[in-house]
């Protein structure tokens, strides 16, 4: 067997740009912004005679591309996911909420405005924020009793479990072990708020996995699906055929699931 050598020409384009850490769009913006920046320095210098804020070369801090950006970001996976899920939890009004691996400076921030949140992550978190209780732990082996949590979330996290990206151990079945643990700890009548990438099932090592939506439904076999939505092309869609997503080979949709554990009729 001949040895294969890896050259830059053979690298996937995403890997190439990750390796050289080149942001072409930002570089282009900075190039276009240089001339306006120099003009603005000149204009400011002409008007600063009465100002207490005078330009000094020592403190120049060029921001060259911001003039070409929009006022903010009100679209995309995380924006719609975090807002949609937080509104659902606000409406459900649980006494206590637990989260595993979700985005702190987005989704968890929303929840902290109205609810204490217990967070579990395999990585450490240095925080003294009121209402945020951190626990270091592994989602594939939670130290939590069976059917004991009434409100639980895991957003855009399970697709990473077992890939080593965040310092966890390599485990090709890690995502399924984690999902079974979420199912195990959810109490009767409790809600699970869950999201992962949906599309043609694959692993894009070591960024994430992409799931067939039916894989998620089958794995949470003890739970009932109560709500489903997706974020696709930056926009939220609440009325969409789930099976229409399973063959997406390029990119993915962010699938938003809300599951409920049925209440035992004998209880």
Say how many strands there are. 10
Overall pLDDT: 90
Task: Bin the helical content.
Answer: 25-40%
Q: Tell me about the biggest sheet? A: 8 strands, mixed
Specify the structural class: alpha/beta
Distance between the termini: 64 Å
Fraction of residues in β-strands: 15-25%
Task: List the uncertain runs.
Answer: 1-10
Report the C-alpha radius of gyration, rounded: 23 Å
Number of helices: 6
Blueprint (SSEs and pairs):
Blueprint: H1 13-20, H2 24-47, H3 77-92, E1 97-100, H4 104-112, E2 117-121, E3 132-136, E4 149-155, H5 174-185, E5 186-198, E6 202-204, E7 208-210, H6 213-219, E8 224-232, E9 235-237, E10 253-260
Parallel strand pairs: 1-2, 1-4, 2-3, 4-5
Antiparallel strand pairs: 5-10, 6-7, 8-9, 8-10
Helix pairs in contact: 3-4
Keywords:
single chain, 267 residues, alpha/beta, two-stranded antiparallel ribbon, 28% helix, elongated, disordered N terminus
Structure description:
The protein is an alpha/beta fold. Helices cover about 30% and strands about 20% of the residues. The chain is built from 6 helices and 10 strands, in the order αααβαβββαβββαβββ. The chain has helices spanning about 15-20, 25-45, 75-90, 105-110, 175-185, 215-220; strands at about 95-100, 115-120, 130-135, 150-155, 185-200, 200-205, 210, 225-230, 235, 255-260. The strands form 2 sheets. Strands 3-2-1-4-5-10-8-9 form an 8-stranded mixed sheet. A two-stranded antiparallel sheet has the order 6-7. A hairpin with a 2-residue loop joins strand 8 and strand 9. Helix 3 runs parallel beside helix 4 (about 105-110). The protein is elongated, with a radius of gyration of 23 Å. The termini are far apart. Residues about 1-10 have low confidence and may be disordered.
């Amino acid at each position: 067997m001949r040895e294969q050598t890896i050259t830059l020409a053979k690298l996937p384009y995403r890997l190439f740009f990750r390796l050289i850490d080149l942001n072409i769009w930002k570089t282009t913006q900075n190039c276009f912004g240089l001339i306006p920046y120099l003009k603005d320095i000149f204009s400011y210098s002409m008007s600063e005679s009465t100002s207490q804020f005078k330009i000094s070369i020592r403190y120049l801090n060029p921001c060259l591309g911001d003039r070409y950006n929009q006022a903010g970001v009100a679209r995309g996976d995380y924006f719609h996911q975090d807002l949609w899920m937080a509104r659902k939890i606000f409406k459900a009004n649980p006494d206590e909420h637990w989260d595993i691996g979700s985005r702190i400076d987005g989704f968890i921030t929303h929840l902290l405005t109205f609810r204490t949140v217990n967070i579990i992550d395999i990585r450490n978190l240095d925080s003294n924020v009121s209402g945020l209780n951190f626990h270091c732990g592994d989602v594939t082996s939670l130290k939590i009793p069976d059917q004991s949590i009434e409100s639980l979330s895991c957003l855009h996290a399970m697709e990473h479990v077992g890939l080593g990206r965040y310092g966890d151990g390599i485990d090709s079945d890690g995502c399924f072990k984690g999902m079974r643990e979420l199912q195990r700890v959810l109490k009767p009548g409790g809600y699970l708020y869950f999201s992962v990438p949906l599309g043609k099932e694959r692993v894009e090592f070591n960024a994430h996995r992409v799931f067939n939506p039916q894989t998620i439904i089958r794995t949470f076999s003890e739970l009932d699906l109560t709500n489903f939505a997706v974020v696709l092309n930056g926009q939220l869609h609440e009325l969409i055929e789930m099976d229409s997503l399973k063959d997406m080979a390029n990119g993915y949709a962010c699938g938003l699931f809300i599951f409920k554990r049925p209440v035992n009729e004998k209880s």
